Amino acid sequence: MAIIPINMQEGKIAQNSEMIVGIDLGTTNSLVAYMNGDQPQIIKDPIQGTALVPSIIHFAENGDVTVGNEAKKYLIEDPKNTIFSVKRLMGKAFGDVQSFKNILGYQIIDDDTESLVKIRVKDKFYSPIELSALILKELKERAETVLQTEISKVVITVPAYFNDTQRQATRDAGKLAGLDVLRIINEPTAASLVYGFGVESPEDAEQEAPKKVAVYDLGGGTFDISILEIGSGIYEVLSTNGDTFLGGDDFDRAIIDYWLAQKMISETDLVADKSFGQAIRLAAEKTKKVLSENDFFSQEISGHQLRISRKQFNELTQHLVQKTIQLCGNALKDAKLEPQDIEAIVLVGGSTRIPAVKQAVNDFFHAADRKTADSLLKDYINPDETVALGAAIQADILAGNNKDALLLDITPLSLGIETVGGLMDVILPRNSKIPAKVGREYTTSVDGQTKLKVAIYQGERQLVRDNRKLGEFILSGIPPMPAGLPKIEIGFIIDADGVLNVRAREKRSGVEQTVTIRSQYGISEEDMGKMLIDSVRNAKEDMQVKALLEARNEANHILYATDKFINQNIALLSKHEVEQLLTHKKELQKAIQSTDKDLINTQIQALNEFSSPLAHRAMDKTILEAMKGKKV
Ligand code: ADP
Ligand code: MG
């Protein structure tokens, strides 16, 4: 079974010749690339000639949405309506992002539930998926303008440490942008492809021993180090490490701090004049780039003479570089390797253009002492383009143009189960290699629940009613526990013949139930093609229905929790507070009846803002009581 591409225009299964592009959806910058003959090439802005699309989105008062370079200037001018670093929020719940939500200038909503984060812009609520889709759409349009053809199929890269939810969120973003995401690949894998690792012809691959490669990726806000073992087209990630808050931004800040310390600028000026602050920030980034090529920087900006030498810059940022090296050490340790075991180091990310960074990596891996013909350090001229170029190479392999690379068997459509509200939860995405074994943990939604229905579906739509049902069974005998406490693992195991085994197991009690499904291929290629097309065509509506259902689920959950809270703490609440809570409840109940997800979210937020101080008070009181109890 090979990849089944579809032609969106004709609604038919496409021939292999259709263009597939590769996309690097980055935290700071995104890029799109394609295969031009046998060379991967970045698709540049046709007018500006720029390769990078800053991953920034601005929502104007009049409803206009701008993405990329145009949106960058609003970061300081209009921070509340300017979204950046959305990749940090992909597939995350509020609890995961609480520690850094303050550094983002926009509003992230805490609804006190486990559900995924939402971003509030004026009166609308957006998911990170919708926001990423806007960036992807920009890249799609750029590619269509430059290549003069419709682009509907892509390969998108994600960090190696992205979990299932984050990968699925990235797929959904692609779908929402009108793209068929043929595959999600790891950024370090993509970068390695650029240097020809892993794409040897099958004959060579037989003899060649697997190569150990380190991919050092220092971007705008994040640092990732990955150790890979590559052989015969198989990429194994041996270990990953990094720091999600270490990147080029920190180097810029070091320069600003130096200018402040040298009194070339003053803190008061920076704070008082926002556009001056903006100018300085941009100047610092520019300075850093100049210092990658020159020994000295000096320029007058807004009446201030700004100076710094590369030597000074290196001293100021040495601790940052050392931190990355220390993390490289950790990654090697996890992979049980020594620096000498690494056969190639791939440098990725705009910040690896800094000479001191290159030098430090070279030193750490003892590159100079080794007697190899080729340089150990693989640094592409534009390291911020490597990942996108690799994605284009992968896309070309999927398109069937690279005859040497072999494709393994894959699942033709996504497989998943039904969750609350009739939503499809994908457990094994389409185009996954088989055999495969994946699992995900679920829990109960009602106190004392002893049974759980597991319904298995195949397809690409967000609601199970639009997908194909493969089977269902009931896991019974779950010991009664409060909602949320049972740990029910649903495992999907597909063997080499494509037979799917689904197992549900409650981990605390050990009760389990299994079903075998043989019919996942009992579907014609034509129906399969139709299903894929429908999923992309209906992506927007599907996502809207999904967002509404999710908002309702959440609202019901919160109403339930509020009732419970009032009952348990009635003695601690004033009459007025109870009345207020009931009014908020009523408003939320009214909102649930509507089909306006933004209204529901607004009411959820209002109820939470009112109830959370009360909850804290009740908690303090309970703790006090408990302590008193102990003394007796
Ligand atoms: P991400 O992968 O996080 O989206 P990139 O790989 O595009 O980010 O890297 C962006 C970072 O690279 C920015 O901090 C930018 O200032 C930095 N950068 C780009 N060019 C240079 C250069 N010539 N010298 C130093 N840093 C650079
Ligand atoms: Mg990157």
From the spread of the alpha carbons, the general shape counts as globular
- The total strand number stands at 29
**Cofactors, ions, other ligands:** adenosine-5'-diphosphate, magnesium ion
**Proportion of strand residues:** 15-25%
Structural class: alpha+beta
CATH level 4 superfamily of the largest domain:
ATPase, nucleotide binding domain
Low-confidence stretches: 404-408
What is the number of helical segments per DSSP (H or I, 4+ residues)? 17
The radius of gyration is: 27 Å
CATH architectural designation of the largest domain: 2-Layer Sandwich
Distance between the termini: 71 Å
CATH topology of the largest domain: Nucleotidyltransferase, domain 5
What is the CATH C level class of the largest domain, in words?
Alpha Beta
Averaging pLDDT over every residue, what do you get?
87
Q: Main β-sheet, in a few words?
A: 6 strands, mixed
The domain tally reads 4
Level of helix content? 25-40%
Task: Give an account of the 3D structure.
The protein is an alpha+beta fold and 632 residues long. It has four domains: 17-197 and 385-399, Nucleotidyltransferase, domain 5; 248-315, ATPase, substrate binding domain, subdomain 4 (Actin, Chain A, domain 4); 415-528, Substrate Binding Domain Of DNAk, Chain A, domain 1; 539-627, Substrate Binding Domain Of Dnak, Chain:A, Domain 2 (Up-down Bundle), CATH 1.20.1270.10. Helix content is 38%, strand content 25%. The chain contains 17 helices and 29 strands. Strands 3, 4, 5, 6, 13 and 14 form a six-stranded mixed sheet that branches. It has a five-stranded mixed sheet with strand order 17-16-15-20-21, with helices on both faces. Strand 27 (488-494) and strand 28 (500-506) form a beta hairpin. The longest helix is centred in the C-terminal third of the chain and has 35 residues, at 597-631. The radius of gyration is 27 Å and the shape is globular. Residues 404-408 have low confidence and may be disordered.
